## 1
Amino acid sequence: MTLEETAEKIRTMEIRGAGRIARAAAQALHDYSMEDDCTNLALYRQKMHAAADLLISTRPTAVSLPNAVNLVMKPLKNETDLKTAKQNLEERALAFIRRSEEAVSRIGTIGARHIRDGDVVLTHCNSEAALACILKAHQQGMDIEVYATEVRPRNQGHITAQTLSDAGIKTNFIVDSAARYFMKEVDLCITGADAITVNGSIINKIGTSQIALAAHEARVSFLVAAETYKFAPCTILGERILIEERSPDEILPAGMRKNLPNVTVRNPTFDITPADYVDLIITEAGVYPPEMAYTIIREQLHWDTEEMNSDFPYCEEE
Ligand code: RI2
């Protein structure tokens, strides 16, 4: 796949999921560097930065994407020799992909410890990290049942239902608006995250915050499964996470909208769940209360504010 093809697939959500788009971006940078035939370092840097910018521009909310790109790109500025610069960048990209896959697996192992035999688990959207916990618990022989939401408008819940069904897990497939109705039958909720801010708020698929609210009301635990690179360093500096709003075509086709001249279709892709409604965040580094987001950004992502001010080029947009 060319760089442009990867960027387009991320933009159109053919490649989707916060972890998957991060890995796809790292792979695209790796391949782009491999194919590059520049003869000088300055030009190589320039081309790689343009590639990084293109990838980051594809989807604005999942912070895994700029975090992955930044991890691959950041040390490039210290390189002095083209051959080594290329080699190191390519190694960093592959290392990120490897670490990301290991992180999901480790989250599964840690998350499964929070599921008990006989539990009914509700999940929303299609999160590799959340599913890793559920699948691991099932593999360990726990008898669990899942409620999986449909996830309008892109129906990612269909993928989740397929995965759960393939694994032989008893699954109830419900429309998004039925989450509160069924909450009395649920023991815990597990979702993924596209971004986690310094105050522990979770940005995830639209509808997540309503589910968290319903769980809170019903005294049902609400867990978030997320790799540490879903935490947003730029929020330490007061930057906000931009919530992507996608085309109205995903909800109502243009032909139908034509007859509704006074109607505006709004299609935010994500919403924000305040830390108050989140019990725990399961990461590959262990389980944290959302209040510890700052510590995770400082210690796990190795960011400090001084470095960020000078060195986090992909954190400038709102
Ligand atoms: P993993 C997805 O975003 C969903 O919001 C999901 O909860 C989140 O990414 C995390 O997914 P989208 O790409 O990284 O479907 O855990 O908009 O797979």
Note: The radius of gyration is 20 Å.
## 2
Amino acid sequence: MTELDTLKKVLTLEKSKGYRNTAVVGGLDRFLARWADGRASDSLIQPPPGAYADLKAAQRRKWIDDALTALETGAAPSKKKAAAPRARPARKEEPSPEHTLASPVTALPRVTPTVAGKLKRLGVNTIRDLLYLFPRRHHDYGELKKVAELAIDAEQSVVVNVWEAREALLGGRLRATEAVAGDETGNLRVVWFNQPYLAKRFKPGTRLLLSGRVNVFMGSPQMESPEYETLQDGEEPGNMGKQVPVYPLSEGLPQRTLRRIVNETLNAWATRLADPYPEPLRKRVEVPELSQAIRQAHYPAEESEKEQARRRLAFDELFSMQMYVFARRRQWREGGGAVPLAKSTETLNALFSRLPFSLTGAQGKAMEEILDDMTRDKPMSRLLQGEVGSGKTVVALGALLTAVANGRQGAFMAPTEILAEQHYNTISKLLEGLPQAESRGNWFSFKMEPFERPVSVGLLIGSHTKRQRRDVEEMMAQGALDMVVGTHALVQQGVEMPRLALAVVDEQHRFGVMQRASLRQKGESPHLLVMSATPIPRSLALTLYGDLDISALNELPPGRQKIRTRFVPSDRRQDAYDFVRGQVSEGRQAFVICPLIEESEALQTRAATTEFDTLSREVFPDLSIGLLHGRMPLREKEAVMARFYGREMDVLVSTPVVEVGIDNPNASVILIDGADRFGLAQLHQFRGRVGRGEHPSFCLLLSDFPSAEARERLMVMERVDNGFAVAEEDLKFRGPGDFFGTRQSGLPDLRQARLSDQELLSTARREASALLSHDPYLERPEHRLIKEALEAQWPELVGEVS
Ligand code: ADP
Ligand code: MG
């Protein structure tokens, strides 16, 4: 139904109810205002002058009848121009008919290819993307302060003159711009870290609008890396409106320009955003219409509009994710039956009784849940969550051996070759002491109680030579190999495993959902166990992994070292190095994790190499230091690791990407440089690298110039040592989108939704579930737009489900 149809329906209803202003909840005026909002003032239907509620019965009738006639004939009813409750800004660009919201931004009049390139870096490619480029925040220019009025520790905006700006070197390492600026009431110091080039730009006398938190530096007010805008002569920020959007910036694209582009696009295009939800759904959820919400998200008239818009857009994100998750779940379930696997108590006893420890309560419970799932003919799809060291591998092995006991095959997949090797080694260690039948380079077999023939385990990774792989591949294809450990690539390349009944996938969030589907074999789906070391709070897990059932290992095996964690400010850097040296002199080893550089792996590698050079030449010239980064060939990585494990190396410098899975019980300290750039959950993962043996262990968090908030986050690490609690804390600071880092997670952007949106989240679940139960394949016309939106966002759903 088009918007005009809706209007017509409402007006007809009002007529049939005798013009008593009862057609819509809340009265016609509110409806008309909403309806008129976002439309040009010369559109077909104008709200009555004044309010409908105030009209006499006869006037009401006339207005309604005129409007209905106009809707029928397409001609405006009245020459008299009535003011719409909130007229649109005058500037109006008619969208050219040959373009759509999906057209590239270059279709817009002001967007040159150069500007388009800059927008692309903000993730904006199409006109629609631009409408969805939400401001990071709004300046409240109604609240401009004078310097003398600035309050400490609060976000504020102030207009100042620059007196002096110069490039400075802070802490001997960090290039920055340092400026003194002020107004007639006083001065303040302003520092921009990492942006030395600003010094040249801010000539004395430049007028700046600054926005940020104020703190105290040597007794005077200071702003650190505030947002800034240069003001022209005579330009007053108040002219820009009260709530002015502040967009994320891309180098070379000034805030002012971006703001203008977005604003013009809103005026010309926002009303063309069709709301995918049928009216009743929108009513139930109590959210504004889409185009209205988009406009309000950019230019809210007041605080409540901002929240109302956010709520609508957050609902969209959560609803779409729920639809996806439910659809995926159904896809997996309907994709093919699974082979039910009988529980083999003998096998599990044989495995567990020979371990030097007994399972924790959490492990036992998870094992039960998994085995229960596997006895069904519906494929299991379960997530096993547990932080590093919580003992997931043993549980996985129990499940794999169950598959083998049923005469089937099991696969164990890891995100990297290093991790695959590690799992392979862990499995052979867990089986240590069992009589080996055969042992070749990349496979071995062992004898174990209930099995009549030896059980074989192979390792399959891409960097092994064809010849090395041939044995394993052949055995797999013949069904002669019982278990294979490999990388995710294993599945993608479609390696044959005719009797595959269970696939274990480590580190879910690096394993695309796409790949899950490729596991399916000949109309039969293997049981799927996904493992993740990222502790995710249950509320969030339900949303993100709603297509999986969840088992959680929320306790660590007894006797683990608590890792003492300290935040180290920049002036104590040397102390941190001394501490590392102290540990080394006691025979321990150390990790140094380099700061995270998002831009590229090449830059990351360069930074790590520089850090490695500095450490080995200047800081620890007398120690043996190694370097590990993602671009090294596997063989080289293995050699470095072997030296580290063999204690030939005191300090291992590593980029953040490759650290996962290293297990060296002699390592007792990990120093994380640029700690403020990592999420807490990630820091917690790093920290799990130490404390794996009997030695007291330490984690040092270095950060040169953390913001007040970053400092607070790092302090959390000192206090909290349970992974789930860390994750909860992390989410308080960051939205769920940031929490995962969408870049590597393959998860959708949650830009508006927050973890605290519990009520909205359950509403989204309820609505999605109701929708799918009424219209499982979204075939009804009123659901067409929802279907299109879903398919646009999740191409893998096209044709399959929605
Ligand atoms: P995860 O994969 O969850 O990080 P692992 O499965 O690698 O953890 O287990 C970490 C270590 O803990 C391994 O050395 C494993 O043998 C040991 N372990 C596992 N379960 C227990 C337990 N219940 N009690 C003591 N040690 C355990
Ligand atoms: Mg593990």
Note: The mean pLDDT is 82.
